[in-house]
Amino acid sequence: MSTTRKITVVALAAALGVTTLSACGGDAKDKPSGASDAPKSKTVTLVSHDSFNVTEAVLKEFEQQSGYTVKVLKSGDAGAALNQEILTKGSPRGDVFFGVDNTLLSRALDNGIFTPYEAKGLAGVKPEYVLDKEHRVTPIDSGDICVNYDKAYFADKKIAPPQTLDDLVKPEYKNLLVTENAATSSPGLGFLLASVGKYGEEGWKDYWSKLKANGVEVVDGWEQAYNERFSGSAGGKKAKGDRPLVVSYASSPPVEVLYADPQPAEAPTGVATGTCFRQIEFAGLLKGAKNEEGGKALVDFLIGKKFQEDMPLQMFVNPVTKDAALPELFTKHGVVVEKPESVAPETIAKNREQWVKAWTSIVVK
């Protein structure tokens, strides 16, 4: 996925399948003033990856104002969900697709699964997130894949935690880092792309050769890396993880605070802000949607202030609109990544497969 993205996939994901988030749409008295009396579908279906979540009250307000009932069809991780929409192109399973990120964006656009739509409120989205000038997709959230560190470990050892990709190959960090497999994991792929963004086509392979020589451990996915091998997380402590560095998200420290009982005054983990790759997640109106007007209204809602401000504590990602405020948990315990690495979606699309194969031959085999 993305997304992504996300920490909440393990902690907060709902069951697979079609989930009705509200029992019924608003009746006539709930329609916005001037709404048409012509027959229309009262249901709008959002196809998403498993980590989509929204506060019930926020969604209900949209349903009452629009007259639509929202159904969410969760379809595994972002890659699996996108594959299904490509296979059903022209006869989609829903009206809107949410969750394609910048690592998969070109694939989605090249397959022509979206109908262009310039969402109401798009002018309020930060321009750096608008990657498709034809408006086939609308940016919804962003998140940074970064190395996290166990503060207690480095304090006890009297070693400064690493802050950059260059730091990770230094001898003092030998045998400390665990990362996810780039072939099987979204954060693993994001970390590979961070190295491509930093060192370029000519340098990233040499960097990974150095990381391997410095004892990087590779596991299949985020759950194993973060909740079993990483010594700084609540799950890792229980599992007696012994790796104080892990590839995760910039939003991981606030999550550690949120779910701790009692909540600590300071997050037990930190973020190496010079190791990050920025993910951006998008939504798009599916070509052939049965309820195109409802789909447009839903996309407008996803970049509206209510949803954008609700999203951080539901999916642990950042809003993309200029006027959305972050919750105190994020501002107090999170970090701002000023200069994340990035790679153009079309470059990723052209090279992703060969990069992953090369990475596997260097690090895994």
Global Rg:
21 Å
Portion of residues in beta strands equals 15-25%
**Which class of secondary structure composition applies to the elements?**
alpha/beta
DSSP helical segment count: 13
The number of strands is 11
Nearest-integer average pLDDT = 89
Fold and architecture overview:
The chain is α/β, with parallel strands linked by helices and 365 residues long. Helix content is 37%, strand content 19%. The protein contains 13 helices and 11 strands. Strands 1, 2, 3, 4, 5, 6, 7, 8, 9, 10 and 11 form an 11-stranded mixed beta sheet that branches. Helix 6 packs across helix 13. It is globular and about 65 Å long. It starts with 7 loop residues before the first helix and ends with a helix.
Topology:
Elements: H1 8-12, E1 17-20, E2 43-48, H2 56-66, E3 69-74, H3 78-87, E4 96-101, H4 105-110, E5 114-115, E6 138-150, H5 151-157, E7 177-180, H6 186-213, E8 217-219, H7 222-229, H8 234-238, E9 245-249, H9 252-258, E10 269-286, H10 292-302, H11 305-315, E11 318-319, H12 328-333, H13 345-363
Parallel strand pairs: 2-3, 2-4, 7-8, 7-9
Antiparallel strand pairs: 1-3, 4-10, 5-10, 6-9, 6-10, 6-11
Helix pairs in contact: 6-13
Name the descriptors.
365 residues; 19% strand; eleven-stranded mixed sheet; disordered N terminus; 13 helices; alpha/beta
